[in-house]
Amino acid sequence: MGFVVSAAGQERVFLSAPRRSMPSNFCVVENTTETINFINSLRQRLVKPPVSGTRAVRSRLDPSRRSPGAPRWIGPYIDFATMQHISPASALILAAEYDRARSLRASRIGELGKLFVVNPQDWDESVLETLFEVGFFDILDIAHTISAPDGERRILRFRSGKENDATAIGAMLDEIERMFKDVGLNANDACFELNGALGEAMENTVRCAYPSGGSFHIPHVGRWWMTGALSKSLRRMNVAIFDQGVSIPGSLKGWKFYGGFAERFLNAVGIPPDLSEPRYDGRVIELAIEESATSTNLEKHGKGLGHIKAFVDSCQSGRLTIVSRYGFYMYEKGRKPVVKSLNANLGGTLVEWDVMI
Prior knowledge:
Shape: globular
Number of domains: 2
Number of strands: 16
Strand content: 15-25%
CATH architecture of the largest domain: 2-Layer Sandwich
């Protein structure tokens, strides 16, 4: 037995097997392949629920379909209780996938599009707190039913918009600035280079994410999602942007610095770039950042993809992670970037800064 919680309320149900268990460490950076593989399977399940699950939801909406005096059963479900850790950036991706599914399902199957969770009272407290603060439960319209612990870390509720939505971007930057002030920083601090880095991330990734006629890994809703988190005691800040678009490798062909990038790729790899070939996605991201830094004569206040990396150097210490299509790029201040191509497609682009302030 268990409890289903949705916008329709809470209901006691029989839980049938099999269940789909969340990874213990749901983190695109620390547990990359398992997390991305789960995200891809989740996408299919959320948008096209199993027949048994659809039948169960119908019985909830129409009590006449339910056996008298008996709790209903639900088909295979997603078990969040197995998750022991989720990073703010990965919580953002999870929220984005549910947000996308909510939009697509509502247009296809109406009231049956309502999403639900099972037994949130059994979830790890830190997981519950992170999902609550990032706004995951708001997507399901059940935040008012969830009691989440109040931790030391503050996480901003996600913002979402289309392309360069200046209002949403500005609101998020205002909230991040208020977080800085909470730990005694002000707009003159070096870490306010974040404003420029976020702007460049929006300009160079999100703006190009959904081109007309583009090749997309999944049906998309043309949006981006952003969040931020701050640990006051550690003075550690995390900011992430995610989209479900064509990816950095998939959008470079029309880039104004593509000629220099192609030459750089040829010199480094030994062959001309083929942006349809995912095995070089990690190198593509790395070399695009290098080309951007060179082509814009990047210094502290330079522009382009290189500025996304330069923000980390302006902080006490920190890390930039970019996961885009099959590519993985991680730069830690003062170290050589870690670059690799993955066996799983993220289906978009994640840009995450994790810095000490």
